């Protein structure tokens, strides 16, 4: 009673078979964490260390008689390639190997010698902090001075510098943060910082590159230029400072050889947070003064606040001149932090043994650092990053200005009028920790529009189970009765784009009825790209943020839609959709025809290039005769793309140029010149790089006047202002680019310049080449 018993049909058995097959497939995946022998909370450095250890023993070069050595090594290499990458790691944690079908890496590896001598140069050096894309910004924006070594594993000069860099890091420990970035694993990060040679040594917070000698002494002198410190030289007239009840660290120098300015400055920097003041006394000049302290040989002494020479044990004479040891001994003899209670929250610590009820009400179960936002004990955020000082400092600064709250069952959003973005996470999960600072950035941008909270699923398992959270991090937007799971990149920009799409959707959700109306019976001039997907499909989930980005890129040119094949299963079957995701383009003027996407990469830029290639051409090919007769001697404005068929960036830029031609249609004619077929024409025009976009205005007395449509997207470019200034002085310009990532900005910059030029009344007798600051 109370149950419906259905006779199993053939479809039911088929459904059960599919589900069983999926479960078997998922559970038959290799566990990458077990392959490397690491826990799921392992850091990127620990992933590298574990892989290197295995690589040195399992490499085929060391196992020539093992026929399976190659296959075994490919498995651990694939595991390393996935777990070292933040985005791939999240996909793997959430979907297993199914979520990685579009990212086939690990098919090649290096020789044994590479892993032995070149791999992870600084991974075993605690004083050198290895930085990756996920933690670089948090480190260098912490307020401390960072001196970072950008190196490449195969660079001989990098290996020559490594021993000196290690010794330098030990000496500067506690003064300047010494970091290292492997540009072999973080090429995008290195390019974004302008690194083009190795090793490159850069000081962050000052933005200065080091070009000097690579000795430890020279490096130390250079780094100390960016450190502010104040060391006082004491004598009989200034010694009364002791009466001010301020602690002092004093070096007594009884010989010329004892003075080490850098050591004292190091100590001063290490202690400049107000613990003690730092000074020195030249005992060769002030013998009586040093004698009053019972000092007869060079030494360093700590005078805590209210200390006295007459009070035995109150002054600590240190037996070392090592800066790090001095710093640690000073910390050991400083007064402890004030113990706080539930009624006295300012700065300090809480003893959860004596304040057990308070800690239990906040669900604090282990030692942690928390920032309270000034709205009582219920609005706070817990630090889940590394215990390194720079991480804690960066967290405190960000958290105070951000609007992220640590959630508990008592304040979890339910039926709220204001939308909430909730991050379900686990503290041991590295992608979760990388996402937290990005949430803080996004919360500042969206303050007043959306609230932000984090929920620790290792503490609140029941609440996470209620919302079917089975992977970390899972980020969800609760908007009254609507729930939307975020499937984008772990960045503030990605979150902002996602929220923007929720407010103003750019992707059309299609049903069987709207598909027939909008796609099948589309207007002759319309083009559609449609993603047929299933919500349970890992690659489909990975495609979603790229699909939304694609829709924004193609806005006004091509319509972008999706069909949920789990909800509309029969319809997808009738459309012969057999696999997910299935991407189809429905072109103009051909209602019964579509084109399948067969490309390997499903990122927005690759999909955009493919989709734009099906639009009708708005530009024309020009022969040498056409160039002379129509462009140089004609009475129309022309914008030309000089290209070569073998040029990769030219192929990437070709669809962008067609967009430019379409936007300028009726005002400026667009043409293309093949510089491989017409080399002399391009040479006579002064073309030295491909692709080059050049504008040829009509120079006669008749002036074409028209208002050009603005670009479909709003972009900013640091070079635009200087270009606009030049364009009012010269009425011809040329843009050359050699990097595909600049192509979209190039096209939009060209549109801006052309629009400005059309309102100019100046003449020109020759074109003007304008350099691109992004080129190297």
Describe this entry's structure for a reader.
InterPro entries: DnaJ_domain (IPR001623), ER_disulfide_reductase (IPR052460), ERdj5_TRX_C (IPR035674), ERdj5_TRX_N (IPR035673), J_dom_sf (IPR036869), Thioredoxin-like_sf (IPR036249), Thioredoxin_CS (IPR017937), Thioredoxin_domain (IPR013766). It comes from Electrophorus electricus. Its main location: endoplasmic reticulum. Keywords: Disulfide bond, Endoplasmic reticulum, Glycoprotein, Oxidoreductase, Redox-active center, Repeat, Signal. GO terms for molecular function: ATPase binding; misfolded protein binding; oxidoreductase activity, acting on a sulfur group of donors, disulfide as acceptor; protein-disulfide reductase activity; protein-folding chaperone binding. With about 775 residues, the protein is an alpha/beta fold. The protein folds into six domains: about 30-115, DnaJ domain (Helix Hairpins); about 120-225, Glutaredoxin, CATH 3.40.30.10; about 230-330, 3-Layer(aba) Sandwich (Glutaredoxin); about 370-500, Glutaredoxin (3-Layer(aba) Sandwich); about 505-610, 3-Layer(aba) Sandwich (Glutaredoxin); about 620-760, Glutaredoxin (3-Layer(aba) Sandwich), CATH 3.40.30. Helices cover about 35% and strands about 15% of the residues. The chain is built from 27 helices and 29 strands. It has a five-stranded mixed sheet, covered by helices on one side. Strands 6-8-7-9-10 form a five-stranded mixed sheet, covered by helices on one side. A hairpin with a 7-residue loop joins strand 13 (about 370) and strand 14. The radius of gyration is 33 Å and the shape is globular. The model is unreliable at about 1-30, about 700-755 and about 755-775 (pLDDT under 50).
